[in-house]
Structures are given as structure tokens and as C-alpha cells.
Amino acid sequence: MNQGVWYATIALILTLGLFPSCGPSAATTTHTGLAGARELARDGRLAEAETTVNSWLKEHPGASEGLEERGCIHVEQGDPEGAIADLEAVPHPTNRGVLCLAQAYHLAARHQDVLRILPPLLKSGKLNPQGARSLVFSALAMRRGKEALEYARAVRKMFPKDVPVRLIYARALAVNNFFTEAIEELTQTARVVPDNPEVPFIHGNLLWVAGYYPEAVAQYKIAVKMSPLFAEAWRNMGIALIQDAHHEEAIDVLSRALKLVPGDLQTINNLGVALASAGRLDEAAALYVEALRQAPDQPVFLNNLADVYVRSGKVAEALVSVERLVKVAPKRGNALRMHKDLFALKTLIDSICQGEKKAIMAVQTAFVEKGWSQADARRALDRVLADTIFQRWIERGAESCPTH
């Protein structure tokens, strides 16, 4: 299997979030100093913890232990830049400080830095499960498949009961084409944690990328049965259903996913694809038009709206959409070609009543006026006249010509 496919699929990305322990706060306890800040952070009272550290740092400006403590709090707050600023200023961080810095790098997608500082902790046995997941994830993100699998095997032995570690180990196996072993790892994990929806979700992702669409759908159904609000599982199920040509079912599933995460661009796009594939072109067009009100420069919406308009015979509208596409994404591979093809198609339809030869000459003249070459015109005409959908609209245009 092509290794690049495994890397490309965003559906396989594991959420390596933070899992701060939360518990009842002791309202009557006075929290001071770094120990008090750490206790506040353990209680999930991060803003108070940061304030406490800041007070301590006023008395001990630039002290490494204070910067390290605040940096770790920033990580839990989801502020990687603040964390990095503090933690990189610590000349000799503790093991905890290195782990916090690695997580900050992970959150900031600085995967090269994660791979720079975590392997020594793995070698010394001082890695925690969260750091283990970050290490494997960063190697995968850098497309270092063999290295990722080497790390994954090691951390799988270190943390055999950690479910996220087992999931990312399965992913590393799959990236390296050990598909059977990846599925077996997920199957074993499902026995350990039968009620964890992430397990069938990742299982479904592996099957989906491998092209086993019905089997992937079955796994996604298990995931959403466990967790009905699992929007990603609904979305990926819908995509698998499209690829398995179950378009009406895909519409229902993707509509549900969109209700859970309104405005999600990937879900909107795939719902439009499902509607168009089911022949519900007006609904697909309306969906893309509405989406473009929210994201007017989204190339994929402009591209797919143009396609829907062409299939509906609305060539002028399709051309307008593609002209917008060329403006917002001039380097998009097919944008300029689509522009030339639709321009040629519209010119042909507008001129067809003069006869086929004159219509072709009209296209050539119009291309020159646009600053395009005669060769561009010939290539566009070849593509247009070979396309069955385009031919249909040219024939419709000819049928509407007045008879003498």
C-alpha cells in the first residue's frame, strides 16, 4: 500500500489532548508559592495557578522553577507559545519541564523540536504516556514512518495499558504497511476497553483508507452507537458511504454530522458531494452558495459549485464560480484549465446558431481577446468536445436555434 496515502488521510489523526486531573477545590485552603500553584493546577484552577506563580515570580524574577511551573500551566491552558517562551528560558529544565516543553511543541506543530528533545527521555525510561504519544505522533507527522514504528513499539511496551498509546501504535503499524497487525492491535484494544468509541473509530479509519468501505462503515456505526455525539465518526462514515456509492444514506449521516458541528467545512463539502452524486443538484448548489457566504474564498466550494452548475446546465453561473476560483487560488492545479474550458463552452453555446465552424472560430477569437493563445483554444476545444456533459449542453443550445 502507498505509504503516502496513510499520511495524507486527516481522519487518522489522533487527538493527543491534555488530560488534567480535576477534583473538588479546597475553598478554605490558602494557596501560595509554587507548591500552592501546582495544587491549584491539579484542581483544574489554572487561572488561579498562573496568578499564584506570577506573584511568586515578582519576588523571584526570572527564577527557573517559577518559569517552568508557569510554562507547564500554559500548556494545560492550551497556550503553546506562552509555554515555549517560559520553558525555553529555563537553562536546565527538570524532566517535567522537558515533557511540558515537548507538549507545547506538539501543540504548536513543531514536530522537529519534539523529536529533538524526547528520544533521550525514551532511552532513559523517563517518558510519560502523553510524551510517548507526542513522540510517535511527531515522527508520523514528519513522515518518518520507520522511526515512528520504532518509537511506537518501545512506548507500547512501556505503557501496555494506555489506550491512546495503543491506538497510535496501530497507526504506526498501518503507515508501515503492517495492516493485519494494526487491525489485531485494535481488536485486542477493543477487548480491553469495549466501551471506548475511539477504538472502533480508528479501526474504521484504517479500513476506510485501505478501501474496505462497508467494513469501515460498520466500525463507525459501533463508534456512534457508543457515543452518538461523535461528530468525526458520523462525518467519516458519510465519506465512506459516498465512496461505497450509498449516496442517500451518506446524505442522512452527513446531515447529522453537520448538526453536531455546524460550519465544519469538510462536512459541508462532503454533504454537497453526496447531494450531487444522488442527483440532487439544486440542493447541492444551495448548500455551496450558503457555505460561500460564510467562507467566500474557500476554493473547494467554488470548485464544486462550478461542477454542480455544469451538471445542471448553468454554464454562465459555473463560469462565474470558476473566475472567482482563479482569483482566490491562482495556483490551484485545475483552476485555470477549468476557466478556459468553461469559457470555451459558453462561447460555443452562445455562437452555435451560426454553425459549428463559426462557433469554433468564435472561441479562437475570444481566446485571443482574453490574452490566451490559439494553442490554448485548441486544447480547450478538444477537452470540451470530448466531454459528454459539455456536448449535451452544446446540443441543447443548437436545438434552441431558430429555424428558417
Characterise the protein shown here.
The chain has helices at 3-8, 33-42, 46-59, 64-76, 80-87, 95-107, 111-117, 119-124, 129-141, 145-158, 163-175, 179-192, 198-209, 213-226, 231-243, 247-260, 265-277, 281-294, 299-312, 315-328, 335-351, 356-369, 374-386, 388-399. The chain has 404 residues and is mostly helical. The protein is elongated, with a radius of gyration of 28 Å.
Summarize the structure.
With 404 residues, the protein is mainly α.
Per-chain topology:
Elements: H1 3-8, H2 33-42, H3 46-59, H4 64-76, H5 80-87, H6 95-107, H7 111-117, H8 119-124, H9 129-141, H10 145-158, H11 163-175, H12 179-192, H13 198-209, H14 213-226, H15 231-243, H16 247-260, H17 265-277, H18 281-294, H19 299-312, H20 315-328, H21 335-351, H22 356-369, H23 374-386, H24 388-399
Helix pairs in contact: 2-3, 2-4, 3-4, 4-5, 4-6, 5-6, 6-7, 6-9, 7-9, 9-10, 9-11, 10-11, 11-12, 11-13, 12-13, 13-14, 13-15, 14-15, 15-16, 15-17, 16-17, 17-18, 17-19, 18-19, 19-20, 20-21, 21-22, 21-23, 21-24, 22-23
